[in-house]
Write the structure tokens for this entry.
Amino acid sequence: MDKNMADRLIELREKNHLSQSAVANRLGVTPALISAYEKTERNPSLERLIALADIYHTSTDYILGRTTTDSYATIIEVKDLTDAQIRILRELVEVMKHTDATRP
């Protein structure tokens, strides 16, 4: 089933363990407005859409349903890196995948 923008906003908020109040606080709006976005009663402005993407570490395209890839498949520009730097970056990503993110 295709997800609409409201479904994606709920999914992203929950995936990031945030309440509507927490998101509203970061955006400088009321929790009622976040609720309205998630119920398809209102659509975020361009400025707020970009801010939501930043909060949820994803792209505006994902929120809008233009792509099915969220933040966990981020593309990193490596054009100006050496082969050795790219190899180190790949190794770092692999180490981070296997590291418990909850540990300090």
Residues 83-97 form the longest helix (15 residues). The CA atoms of residues 21 and 31 lie 5 Å apart. The chain has a mean pLDDT of 87.
